[in-house]
Amino acid sequence: MKKILSAFTAALMLLLCSCTAISENEDALPAAATVAEPQPYPVEAGNLIFNSSPVTVGSLSPAVTEMIYELGYSDRLICRSSYCDTPEEVLSLPETGSAANPDIDKIISYAPELLITQSPIANKDTVRLSEAGISLLTLPAPSSLEELYDNYAALADIFAGSIEGNSLAENTLADMKSAVNEAKNSCESIVFIMNIDGDEITAGTGDSFAGDLFSVFGRNIAENDTDYTITAEELIKADPQYIFLARPLSASDFDSELAEQLSAFSEDHVFSIDASLTERPTARLAETIRSVSEVMTGTNAETTEFTGGYAETHETSGQ
After folding, report:
1. Which of 44, 70, 81, 214 is the most buried (most CB within 10 A)?
2. Is there a contact between 148 and 128 (Cβ–Cβ < 8 Å)?
3. pTM
4. How is residue 267 annotated by DSSP?
């Protein structure tokens, strides 16, 4: 009988020791045998299963770093990418390269329990991180507002657990969602242009975050286009009421013949705006969304200074 108990005890200890804080998500979680009280963990994210909140984290994404601060878990961060510069206090953390060129040796030396990136890293680097016991989570860069909200929800669940995570994400995003609702239908039509090269125009198309964001304000004339590309002919035909340009692009970069065929130029409805508005989106966009809306609704039509760290706009008549 003692041998049977000893064998059972040994098997139980082996099972308990095999449970780790983060593990690979190979299959769906097994269904519970009985109905039980909801538990904050485990939580699934990407290809990982979290059995508890990660204690030490590294980030190779400026947006993710900022989101972690906004969610209230900055104390978990122990290293960052060289591009992570907001908020200012993050600069005190050691740099570990970037997603495109991570310093794997440094990352391994700091040994974060979890490393988060928004851009896939090389397979050889993934293997080294795995061998060092560092879990890697790739949180895709959002191509829409909903995907941005989903990223907040995923991070909130990872750090706070599924029970508190939902309310944490909603509270963090509350002001931004309010700004989005306030900005709806600020104009009839709009386009966000990043670059002009002859007849080829790089713009916020319907499959991009920029395109989805600017669709909030009014009908995005590039909503049916893809791959950030529209033609001068399409722009002339749609004749958007407002044109926003990504700095350093300005109204003077437009061909004069093209500008003459666009009513936005004659009505002083062309503005330049910092492109980081769409490159690293976080909940800080709330203030910028309100400011852009105010420009179009006439609340602050002459000059708008964006103090949220993202953008400054000026009407073409002031250039």
Report:
1. 214
2. no
3. 0.84
4. T
